[in-house]
Specification:
Elements (H helix, E strand, L loop, with lengths): L2 H20 L3 E6 L5 E4 L8 E6 L46 H20 L9
Antiparallel strand pairs: 1-2, 1-3
Length: 129
């Protein structure tokens, strides 16, 4: 192997290894004054609270998964999530035909999403008796 080939090969190996060697072994856990938390690889914004976290450090508390409380009968559910009339779900146009094209499209889209929610979570849309 010629000297030029060896130098070129060494440069290629060095160039591919540099990004992994230059990667930081830490990141920043940032908290805005309003309580919003985010992670940043370089630095936090001015005025935010910053905590430096070492990658792979197991002493950092792991974020727990979010748990949704089950709806109890009589609880206040958002009435906009469930369709007001389930007959709309059986129609192709979701019961909306007499409006401007823009309003018709918006209403059909919202009713479609409500009907999908009803199919996915029928117990959430069941009315307490």
């Amino acid at each position: 192997m010629k000297l030029g080939h060896r130098i070129a090969f060494a440069l290629v190996l060095t160039a591919t290894a540099c990004p992994t060697l230059a990667a930081a072994d830490y990141f920043w856990n940032c908290t805005k004054p309003d309580g919003t938390k985010y992670a940043d690889a370089t630095q936090c914004d001015k005025g935010d609270t910053a905590v430096k976290v070492i990658k792979g450090d197991r002493t950092v508390p792991v974020q727990t998964s979010m748990v949704q409380a089950e709806a109890t009968p009589g609880s206040n559910l958002d009435p906009g999530v469930c369709p007001s009339n389930t007959v709309y779900c059986t129609r192709a146009d979701f019961g909306m035909t007499d409006a401007s094209p823009r309003m018709q499209a918006i209403t059909q889209f919202m009713r479609k999403k409500q009907c999908e929610f009803l199919k996915k979570f029928p117990e959430r849309c069941a009315k307490p008796q």
